[in-house]
Amino acid sequence: MEHGWFKLDRDIFQDKLLTRDADHLAVWCYLCANAAFKARSVVFSGKPVTLQPGQLITGRKVIAQATGVNEYKVQRILSLFESAQRIAQQTGSQNRLITMLSADEARKDAQQNAHLVHNGCTTDAQQMHTIKKEKKERQKDVNTSALARRYAGKEKWKQGQESVYSSDRSYDLDAIMRESLEKLMRYEPKDSNI
Q1: Residue 78, Ramachandran bin (φ over 0: left; ψ between -120 and 50: alpha; else beta)
Q2: Cα dist. 161→156, 180, 186 in Å?
C-alpha cells in the first residue's frame, strides 16, 4: 500500500448510501484509500493492465480482512455501490478490478441513460401514432370499398357477366365508367318537346 492521503467530502455524512451503516462507510473508505492515484502497470487475470487513477484490484476477502466486515456483506455492498453507479466492477478469476466513478461521471451516465430512455419513449410514441394513422387509412379504404359494393349491388351494374369488381374483389373503376357511358348513350329523354 502506498503512503499518502485522500480527501473525504464533508457532505459524505449526508450521503444515505455511504452512511447506511458503519460497514458501508468502511468499505467505501477502503476503496478510496487503496485506489491508484497515478497510472501504474499491474497484472489482472493473467494479463498486464495499466491501472488508471481511481482504479484498484482487490477481492471481497481482502476487503473483509481489512475492514472487519463479513465477506458476503462486502459483496452485497459492492453490488449496491455498482447499481448506484459509484463504482464499476470487472471480475476476474480470483479478484476484481474496481473503478471508482466520480459524482460527475455517475451523473453523466445517469443523464445518458435517461436520454436513451426518453428517446426510446419518443420513438415508441411516434411508431404508435404512425400505426394508428395507417389503421385509420385502412379503415377508410374498407369503408369506401363497402360503399362501392353496396352501390354496385343496388344498381346491378352488369354487362353480360362483367362486374364492377375485378377478379380479386377490388373496386374496378374502368367497368363502372364503361357502364355509365353506355347508360348515357342509351338515355332518351321522356319529353321530346324540349
Answers
A1: alpha
A2: 11, 16, 19
Q: How many residues comprise the chain?
A: 194
| Helix, strand, coil share of the chain (percent; to 5) | 55, 15, 30
Cα distances from 59 to residues 47, 50, 52, 69, 138, in angstroms, run 17, 18, 18, 13, 62
Helices (runs of H) and strands (runs of E) counted in the chain: 5, 5
Going by DSSP bridges, is the β-strand pair 87-91/47-51 parallel, antiparallel, or unpaired?
Answer: unpaired
Contact 90, 45 (CB under 8 A): no
**pLDDT tens-place string over residues 52-67:** 999 999 999 999 999 9
Q: What is the pLDDT of residue 145?
A: 61
Question: Is 1.10.510.10 the CATH classification of the domain at 10-102?
Answer: no
Side-chain-side CA neighbours of residue 189 (13 Å): 4
Q: Which three cell numbers stand for residue 31?
A: 476503496
For the chain, the maximum distance between any two Cα atoms, rounded to a whole number of angstroms, is 122
The mean pLDDT of 34-63, rounded to a whole number, is 91
Assign 95 to helix, strand or coil.
Answer: coil
Task: Catalogue the long-range contacts made by 64-69 (C-beta closer than 8 Å, 24 or more residues apart).
Answer: 66/30, 67/23, 67/26, 67/27, 67/30, 68/26, 69/23, 69/26, 69/27
Q: Whose grid coordinates read 462507510?
A: 25
